[in-house]
Structures are given as structure tokens and as C-alpha cells.
Amino acid sequence: MKLVIATRNAHKLEEIHAIFDFYNLKVCSAFEHPDVPDVVEDRDTLEGNAIKKAVEIAKATGCWALADDSGLEVDALGGAPGVYSARYAGEQCSYEDNNAKLLEQMKNAPDRSARFRTVIALSDPDGNFKTVSGECAGLIIEDLRGTNGFGYDPLFIPDGYSETFAELSSDIKNRISHRANALARACEDWADTLRKRCQ
Length: 199
Ligand code: IMP
Fold this sequence. Notes:
Bound molecules: inosinic acid
Shape: globular
Helix content: 25-40%
Number of domains: 1
Strand content: 15-25%
CATH class: Alpha Beta
Radius of gyration: 17 Å
Structural class: alpha/beta
CATH architecture: Alpha-Beta Complex
Strand order of the largest sheet: 2-1-3-4-5-6
């Protein structure tokens, strides 16, 4: 019985596959289960959304499921956009809309510190779940830079680097990102469970 990754976001899936490959774990995606329902991310915390996605997909597929929910927390904005990162500029907004709104909100803000945070939930087919989280701290810059990655990547420089996530290679991002840190923790804390499901 394989582990289902509860996301239809192709960018995220690519990153998750790359990280799991590193740990030699084989997983499949919700794309391979066309009957899987779309889960509405309506909770007001990253934890709440990650748990909801993992539990609903596990129950719908009868497989163990792993879901992540991530967000960008900007100190000068009191932690916004946080759990609302995907629809910061409105319900049907694009990544470009979100980046434009972030730049506007951060105009003249002296404190540029921010972090990406990911919460990962793992659920068995009965809905029993557990969570881990990971972070990547950095700075929000004043202009878009780079074309790799997705979302807020062109505006975020991780600590210890001078390039944005969108300028860094995917290899580097997959080593240092919030998602990489959370997945590494999941692979370590849940090693026995995952190995049984992902050979
Ligand atoms: P999700 O709900 O986990 O898909 O993430 C919510 C939003 O956070 C995404 O739509 C992106 O705007 C942003 N986000 C999450 N992870 C990343 C990342 O690795 N880079 C840039 N933006 C991200």
C-alpha cells in the first residue's frame, strides 16, 4: 500500500518527490487517484489545513496520506499572509497578484524579516494523524528576482544566501526550504512507518 501525497500542485509535488527520492521512499500522488475529492482549505491554521487534507484523502483512498500546508509569515505584517498565502490578493488571484500585493504592503517597511513555514500531516486510512513542521527564515526584497520555483520565491532570500529562492537551483532550494526541513523531520520521526508504506 503506497503513501498518497495529498496535493495536486505540480510544483510542490516535484519538490516532495525530489526530497523523498533522497530518502529512497516511493510515493504516489493524488493525480494517480482521479476520484480523490478536492479538499477545501478552510481552516485558520496551517496545522488545521494539513490535517484536514491528509485525513480526507486517506479516508477517500483507503491509503495512508501525507499533506502539507505552507505559508509565508512576514514580521512587519504581523505574520501575514500566513495561512492565507495562496489567496492573499483575493480568491482567484495569481502568484503575480500576491507578489504585487506583498510589495505594496511592504513599501518602506524597514523590517524585512520573514519565514516560510510548512506543516506536514500524516494520516492512516482511519483518520489517525500526526504532524511535524519546518521553517526557512529569510528576508523580503524590494523587487522580483529570478524565475525558478513558484509563489513568493522571487521575493524571498533565505538566510545565508544572497539569491532569492527563484534564483537558486531547485537542488539548493530542496535542501534548505521549509518543506525540505519539515519533510526531513517527517522522514526521521516517522522512519519506520514510512519505510513500511513506501518501498
Ligand atoms: P500551500 O497552501 O501549501 O499550497 O501554500 C500556500 C501558498 O504559499 C502558495 O500558494 C504559495 O503562494 C506560498 N508558498 C508555499 N510554499 C512556497 C514556496 O516554497 N515558495 C514560494 N511560495 C510558497
